[in-house]
Design goal:
The protein is of the alpha/beta class and about 400 residues long. The protein has helices at about 5-15, 25-35, 55-70, 80-85, 100-115, 130, 135-145, 155-170, 185-195, 230-240, 245-255, 260-270, 275-290, 295-310, 330-335, 345-350; strands at about 20, 40-45, 75-80, 125, 175-180, 200-205, 320, 330, 355-360, 360, 370, 375-380, 385-390. The protein binds one RNA strand of 83 nucleotides through helix 11, helix 13, helix 14 and helix 16.
Length: about 400
RNA sequence: GGGGAGAUUCCCGAGCGGUCAAAGGGAGCAGACUGUAAAUCUGCCGCCGUAGUGCUUCGGAGGUUCGAAUCCUCCUCUCCCCA
């Protein structure tokens, strides 16, 4: 294995990073790694309770891949033990205690998704319960004594970063990465490693990606996320619906285009040589190609054009099968049944507002009754994008 | 330990005996305009087959009243100030 010169590696690693503490140390580590022909150990911790990876997570994962491409080892650390404590950094509420089996299952889910981005050969998956669960109270006291807190904080607020820091000790991490919200925890790792007479890890933080609303950071609980397991069609739609300004952010953090290339695109849009929608379409295709394939990305685009520009029916529509009934079915009730409305009143409202289409024509009266006494098929559309095919059988 | 302030529909926040299913804003949803963008405009935004002197909702439990989100009592929780 031959490594690129430290300077060149550094340049790649720097792209997109918010902060590197400290750059000189990273450079020194890269140089040593090169001269000794030893890869660096790059550690990133993940929460075991939320195995649905979304675009926000991929920002850091992309950087992990950069390390892999440069020949380094990446440790995908599943915080099954720290998960019990709960990270005080986020707004996370009390977490349910996960069983061994659940953790295993979540880990499996992680693996499936993670390797869409990371190189499976160069990725080590570890669980921190491996070393943390077996620690005695004495060990904990000893560990805690290595860190002085200036201000008085809650015990678990203190425990979490400490445990995370100990992970770095156990793994002898050279680099730890995380979102900017992780900075404090990552820095604790440096200090604790010093206490253990290890060379402190370099801390690299990546920006937090805004969700589709463009305001809050992307998170599952806020519902503003784009999951990498979503269908190409869904991802395409979600990306197309983000604000134009936000698209540049996604370009920077979710593609491997260089800053120069991105600036070029921006300029194109500013000079009206490139339609912003086209730029967004390209973005969506790039992202989909990463998690699925270029062919699927192209298909998603074609589908999108058909459904929204030509106003045709998508080819994959969710289907619901209902038994035939001799009595006519009140339409609003049907909407509730298939999950397109919350209540009859809600359904009625949607109809009154002209948002409901049945078999291609607008439903204009909430009093509509549908015959359901013989097998039949209907296509219902609510709003611009919700389709359901109902089958009576 | 002492003294204050408060808990309202998804969120913020008004209401302080009837005219309150509860102002206003945000979010969300639908429509118009578009590039399913943003911004903007319009409408909706508790449930009940659209109806009523209807039902359920204003932290929880009781009480006072013809009538309570609004008053009283107790309870739970949150915040602030003094020690």
């Amino acid at each position: 294995m031959s490594f690129l010169p430290a300077e060149e590696q550094l340049e790649i690693l720097r792209k997109g990073a918010t902060e590197i503490l400290r750059v000189e140390e990273l450079k020194a580590k890269l140089e040593r790694s090169r001269s000794e022909d030893q890869p660096l150990r790059v550690k990133v911790g993940f929460d075991p309770s939320a195995p649905d990876i979304h675009l926000g997570h991929t920002v850091v994962m992309r950087k992990m891949r950069h390390f892999q491409e440069l020949g380094h080892d990446v440790i995908f650390l599943i915080g099954d033990f720290t998960g019990l404590i709960g990270d005080p950094t986020g707004v996370s509420k009390t977490r349910p205690v996960l069983t061994r089996a659940q953790v295993e299952q979540n880990a499996e889910t992680y693996r499936k998704q993670v390797f869409k981005i990371l190189d499976p050969v160069k990725t080590r998956v570890e669980f921190n319960s491996q070393w943390l669960a077996s620690m005695s109270s004495e060990d904990w006291v000893r560990l805690a004594s290595k860190y002085t807190v200036a201000r008085i904080i809650g015990i678990h607020e203190f425990l979490y970063p400490l445990a995370q820091a100990y992970d770095s000790v156990a793994l002898k991490a050279d680099v730890e990465m995380g979102g900017t919200d992780q900075k404090f925890n990552l820095l604790v790792g440096r200090e604790i490693m010093r206490e253990f007479h290890l060379e402190p890890q370099v801390v690299l933080t990546m920006p937090l990606l805004e969700g589709t609303d463009g305001v809050e950071k992307m998170s599952k609980s806020l519902g503003n996320y784009i999951g990498i397991n979503e269908t190409p069609r869904e991802i395409f739609g979600k990306i197309l619906s983000i604000n134009d300004d936000l698209m540049w952010r996604y370009y920077e953090l979710c593609t491997d285009l260089t800053l120069v290339q991105i600036a070029e695109l921006k300029k194109g849009v500013a000079e009206k040589k490139l339609h912003p929608k086209q730029a967004k379409v390209d973005l969506a295709k790039r992202i989909i190609a990463d998690f699925h394939s270029a062919a699927e990305a192209a298909a998603a685009e074609a589908e999108f054009e058909r459904v929204f520009v030509s106003r045709e029916t998508p080819d994959a529509v969710e289907e619901v099968t209902l038994p035939c009934e001799s009595a006519p079915l009140w339409f609003p009730r049907l909407l509730v049944k298939v999950g397109l409305a919350k209540s009859n009143g809600d359904a009625t409202r949607l109809i009154n507002q002209g948002g409901v289409t049945l078999d291609g024509s607008r439903v204009d009266s909430p009093g509509l009754e549908l015959r359901a006494d013989a097998p039949a098929e209907h296509l219902i559309k609510v709003g611009k994008r919700r389709f359901i095919r109902v089958r009576f059988r």
